[in-house]
Structures are given as structure tokens and as C-alpha cells.
Specification:
five-stranded antiparallel β-sheet; 14 strands; about 35% strand
């Protein structure tokens, strides 16, 4: 959304023996223990349940070289929990590191020109999906029918990829000519042809590329095509097809993709 402040943030954790030892929430709990002298009061002030605070305190004391808290007995309050000198040192050190950490993040944020413009890219590269092929493009054509629609994306390589989706999806995804969108294709849904010549096929997408890699196995082979502008297409075909088509690195071939095998996504 426009006019929203975007910031670089990262949680700070101190680990010991590969276990999370100290984090901001736990340090806040220690600070509140130092103020209130009571675990239950400190937990409430830190916004934790008593059980969460109890468990966190046990973890910290178990991992610390020396106890960070001690149980106080007697007195009008009937006892409580107090920070040790070691606990106070740990709190002071963590807050000092945290200030440096935040300043480093602020410097990083300032050093990235037009940081907001990179957010779409960061979202794309951190998506978790099973499809091998993910393309970012601009919608250049939409043809709507009674219940289905045809969507054409222009990729950064200049190639076009067409998808057939339900008519309802056009509205629910907010697709419109000129808007960015994604095309996702499973590698197993892509066929390879070594010539476009006399082919008579029903597949809507026919994209030329140069083979940059072939991974062969007993049953299946994986073929990677460079289609320009840093974009690649990966196809999974049978090992026998790799041999029958005499596929080799450097060969120009065609990726054949049915429009119904293309999934369209939007941000």
C-alpha cells in the first residue's frame, strides 16, 4: 500500500550450544524481575504467562555459566525472585549489543536506494512452492469467455506465456492488462521438442531456448533451457526421451507447454 514506511528488522538472539539463550523478550523479563522482585509480577509486566516466564527463566539459568536469578525467601512479601549481579551484567551487555544491532540495520536500510521498490523481488525469491518454474511478467492480454479466460503474460525475456484460468480468477486475483503477475509451471508439465518444424500441436506455448544443463538419471532426466534475459525453463522428461531426441548442452530446442498447465498468481 502507498505511503507505508518500510523498515529493515531482524530479531536479535544470543545462542549457546546451538540453543536460543537470550532474546529481547527474555531480557525484558529479567529487567522486570529486577524491578518487581517477583516472577509473577514480572511476567505480567512483560506480557507473558507465568508458565512461559517460568520456562524461559529455567532455560536461561540452565544455559548460563552462573545463575542470573536467585529465589529470595522470607520478608513481608513471603519471598520472590531477584536478579544476581551476573544477571544485571547480562542485561546490560545485551542492551548494548541490541543498540549496535539496530544501528547496523538502520545503516543497511539507508544504504539501499529505493528499498520499497525491491520488496516485490524479495517476496518472489522467498516464496515456497513446489513448481520448478516461476516467471514474473506483465499481463499483456486477457480474453474472457463465459466461464474461462485466457491470460497472456509477457516475460522479461520478451517471451509470452499463455494460461487458461477460470473467469472468476480474473477478478479474484485482480488481473488487468499492465499489471504484474506470476506464471507457475511444474517441470513435469513441460515437453521438449528439438524442432518447431512441422509440429502440429494443441499446446498454446512454444518457447525456444538453448540447453544449458542436462541431469540424467535412470528413469527421468532434467533439462534446463536458457530463454534469455536470465530466465530459464526446467523440464522433467524421461531418460529415453533425452536419448531419442539426442539432447545435448548447447542445442536449441523448444519448450512446449499447454495453457491449462500454467498457474497464474498475483501479489
Amino acid at each position: 500500500m502507498p505511503n507505508q514506511k518500510v523498515a529493515v528488522t531482524a530479531p536479535l538472539w544470543v545462542q549457546k550450544n546451538s540453543h536460543n539463550f537470550l532474546g529481547s523478550n527474555r531480557i525484558t523479563l529479567l529487567e522486570q524481575i529486577d524491578i518487581h522482585g517477583s516472577l509473577s509480577s514480572a511476567a505480567k509486566a512483560a506480557g507473558m504467562s507465568y508458565k512461559t516466564a517460568w520456562d524461559a527463566l529455567n532455560v536461561m539459568n540452565n544455559l548460563a555459566d552462573r545463575p542470573l536469578t536467585v529465589a529470595a525467601t522470607g520478608g513481608s512479601g513471603g519471598g520472590g525472585t531477584c536478579l544476581t549481579d551476573e544477571g544485571r551484567k547480562v542485561v546490560k551487555l545485551f542492551r548494548m549489543v541490541e543498540r549496535e544491532h539496530l544501528q547496523a540495520l538502520a545503516r543497511l536500510e539507508e544504504s539501499i536506494d529505493n528499498f520499497d521498490s525491491y520488496l516485490p523481488l524479495l517476496r518472489r525469491i522467498t516464496m515456497r512452492i513446489s513448481a520448478k518454474n516461476v516467471f514474473s511478467g506483465i499481463v499483456c492480454e486477457i480474453i474472457r469467455d463465459v466461464s474461462v479466460a485466457q491470460v497472456v503474460l509477457q516475460l522479461k525475456s520478451g517471451n509470452h506465456i499463455t494460461a487458461v484460468v477460470s473467469d472468476d480468477s480474473i477478478d479474484s486475483l485482480g488481473l488487468a492488462v499492465g499489471n504484474p503477475a506470476y506464471a507457475l509451471v511444474k517441470a513435469s508439465s513441460i515437453m521438449i521438442a528439438n524442432t518447431p518444424g512441422p509440429l502440429t500441436i494443441s499446446a498454446k506455448n512454444l518457447i525456444c531456448g538453448r540447453i544449458t544443463g542436462i541431469c540424467e538419471s535412470v528413469v527421468l532426466g532434467e533439462v534446463v533451457l536458457d530463454i534469455g534475459a536470465g530466465e530459464t525453463i526446467t523440464a522433467t522428461i524421461t531418460e529415453s526421451s533425452v536419448k531419442n531426441l539426442a539432447l545435448k548442452e548447447g542445442n536449441d530446442v523448444w519448450a512446449v507447454i499447454k495453457a491449462t498447465s500454467v498457474i497464474i498468481g498475483s501479489e
